[in-house]
Write a structure and sequence with these properties.
Elements (H helix, E strand, L loop, with lengths): L2 H11 L2 H23 L1 H8 L18 H20 L1 H51 L2 H6 L2 H19 L1 H23 L1 H21 L3 H24 L1 H6 L3 H53 L6 H42 L20 E10 L4 E11 L3 E6 L5 H8 L7 E6 L2 E2 L5 H6 L1 E5 L9 H5 L8 H10 L3 H4 L19 H15 L3 E5 L7 H15 L3 E6 L10 E6 L2 E6 L1 H7 L2 H8 L4
Parallel strand pairs: 3-8, 3-9, 6-7, 7-8
Antiparallel strand pairs: 1-2, 1-4, 4-5, 9-10
Length: 609
């Protein structure tokens, strides 16, 4: 059994009731599919007056003679009706019998499909739910290596492909094979000689069809991978539209996009060619078998006269009835290959090990009492060391600023404090407890983060700020906006706090977006605040507004300020000057100026970029 098939089973188990009914109705469909053709025989016997007169009710002689018992039973009633009511009544009975069998066949097909639909849609929902839980739980480091578009393609396209193609396996193992099996049993009852003759040709056509679909899975995988790349291009182009337009780079991105869709076109055409060939090829092979049957069976009827003509017509109907499921099997087997390729990509993400998780006995820490300490930390992202033997203690209620040139390791400290990345060497402690020994939820509950990029969502101001505290009242939101120096512009908006701010807050200026980010952190009201270059992307006027907001927010709070600009850190209790992952100086603003070292040089050069 394919590995990916095994992995889908736990998702399908939840719907075992629907799977049971799907299989039951498929068995009944297959049975009535055969009976609908068998029922044509008495109809033709009545029409062509070939039926024997049976004037006594037949006796039941066990399951092995069920076929002849059913035939004699039917002939008894046809004879009785013909004699009592005239031939048109017996004709009416046989027509009604044919209609009934076809009605039941289609009813069972509908019921089987209904239950299968519920399984497919239920598994789709559960897979998406599991997939989203996984992608949102994976650490930030995972996405620095992967294309977001590829993850989106797996989440949306590949999961859909699993739903559309994968569950055809139920048709492959139950519905179509049983339809063929029942038809073959009926055919063997009619003429064993003829059926053995058919069996010579079926494996040949099966071999040809299998050959066509051999490379389908790898081609499907390549197409799905390319689809992920395509979504990435769209997502990145839209995300950086201002840069694309300002650099007149539309042509460059169009070129990348067009190359990708051309590659996808070639792959899809190749997959389509094989998929489209499956149905006509299996039908043609089937017709070849039927043609050979006509020749050989015609001989049995006309020359040897060992086969009843009406039975031969029913036999041909049954043989043709094998063609539709055979076509469906070849089509479904190709679709399942697509589904397997898609499932592989889905499970690739679901099985990624999350390196940043809670320990089984993790502490749920709800208060911050004494200090934060970073002890002997060595850290690197890939090969280049970012922090070297870094140690720092931040007492409760103090503001500590980290300054230095780009690449000195300042933002890495914010990443380690929040456990976006995990420390490999050294420890991060809060009140003497290793941050790895605390639950992620409680650790992050103690912290508020305001980053250089104000990350806002396409929603109202209210809902963006509520992320900080989801059960907050409107009054609390307005109070947070006031502290963040943001209410003065929010109150003038058409719908106040219920105004939608557009994609990534696109309807607002940089300073306004940053003040909303600060209001979100204020509403959360954590004891520890991390400001990662919160003003570096702002103009001077906006910076003044934001600076007031930051000062309001930092009162009576432990703050770690990562900064380029002098204005944000002059009042800090401790300024730590970093260079290439090491502390070169530390002290207050005035102390460091008198030292006339690197900090004084940075101030002189105004290098707080």
């Amino acid at each position: 059994m394919d590995e990916n098939l095994k992995k889908i089973i736990p998702f399908a188990k939840k719907f075992k009731g629907h799977i049971f009914w799907n299989i039951t109705f498929n068995v009944l469909y297959a049975l009535f599919s055969t009976l609908s053709f068998v029922a044509l025989f008495p109809l033709m016997e009545v029409l062509f007056k070939m039926n024997e007169r049976v004037i006594e009710l037949p006796k039941y002689n066990g399951i092995m003679n069920l076929g002849s018992y059913g035939k004699q039973y039917l002939q008894y009633y046809v004879t009785k009706l013909s004699e009592e009511e005239g031939p048109q009544y017996s004709l009416l009975l046989t027509v009604a019998l044919v209609i009934s069998t076809f009605l039941f066949k289609n009813l069972f097909n509908y019921l089987a499909s209904q239950h299968l639909t519920k399984v497919k849609n239920g598994v789709l929902r559960d897979l998406r739910e599991k997939m989203f839980s996984k992608i949102i739980a994976l650490p930030v480091s995972y996405y620095s290596e992967k294309r977001k578009g590829d993850i989106m393609a797996r989440m949306l396209g590949d999961v859909n492909e699993v739903q559309n193609s994968f569950f055809m396996i139920l048709e492959l193992i139950v519905k179509e094979p049983l339809t063929i099996l029942f038809a073959i049993i009926a055919m063997m009852n009619i003429s064993l000689k003829l059926t053995l003759f058919v069996f010579i040709f079926i494996p040949i056509s099966g071999f040809i069809i299998t050959k066509i679909g051999k490379s389908l899975k790898s081609k499907s995988q390549n197409a799905q991978k390319e689809n992920g790349f395509l979504i990435s291009i769209v997502e990145e182009s839209l995300g950086g539209l201002k840069v694309v337009k300002s650099y007149n780079a539309e042509g460059y991105f169009k070129n990348i996009f067009n190359n990708s869709i051309d590659k996808l076109l070639r792959l899809n055409n190749s997959i389509g060619k094989k998929n489209n060939l499956a149905s006509p090829m299996s039908e043609f092979m089937g017709i070849v078998v039927i043609a050979i049957l006509l020749w050989y069976g015609g001989n049995l009827v006309l020359v040897e006269q060992s086969l009843n003509g009406a039975l031969f017509i029913v036999y041909l109907g049954l043989a043709y009835n094998i063609l539709t499921p055979a076509k469906a099997i070849s089509k479904a087997s190709y679709a399942v290959k697509n589904g397997l390729a898609a499932a592989e990509r889905v499970f690739e993400v679901l099985e990624v090990e999350n390196t940043i998780t809670d320990k089984p006995d993790a502490i749920n820490k709800t208060t911050f009492e004494h200090n934060i300490s970073l002890e002997n930390i060595n850290f690197k992202y890939d090969e280049e060391i970012v922090l070297k033997n870094f140690s720092l203690t931040i007492p409760k209620g103090k503001t500590v600023a980290l300054v230095g040139q780009s690449g000195s390791g300042k933002s890495t400290i914010a990443n380690l404090l929040t456990r976006f990345y995990d420390v490999k060497e050294g420890t991060v402690k809060i009140d003497g407890i290793n941050s790895k020994d605390m639950t992620l939820h409680s650790l992050r509950d103690l912290m508020g983060l305001v980053t250089q990029d104000s990350i806002l969502f396409n929603d109202t101001i209210k809902n963006n700020i509520l992320l900080g505290k989801q059960n907050a009242s409107d009054d609390e939101i307005i109070e947070a906006l006031k502290i963040a120096n943001a209410y003065e512009f929010v109150k003038d908006l058409p719908n106040g706090i219920n105004t939608n701010i557009g994609d990534a807050g696109g309807k607002l200026s940089g300073g306004q977006k940053q003040r909303l980010s600060i209001a979100r952190a204020v509403l959360k009201n954590p004891p520890i605040m991390i400001l990662d270059e919160a003003t570096s992307a702002l103009d001077t006027e906006s910076e003044k507004f934001v600076q007031v907001a930051l000062e309001n927010m930092m009162q009576n709070r432990t703050s770690i300020v990562i900064a380029h600009r002098l204005s944000t850190i002059q009042k800090a209790d401790l300024i730590v000057v970093m260079q290439k992952g090491e502390i070169v100086e530390q002290g207050t603003h005035d102390e460091l100026l008198t030292k006339n070292g690197m900090y004084a040089k940075l101030v002189t050069m105004q290098s707080f970029e």
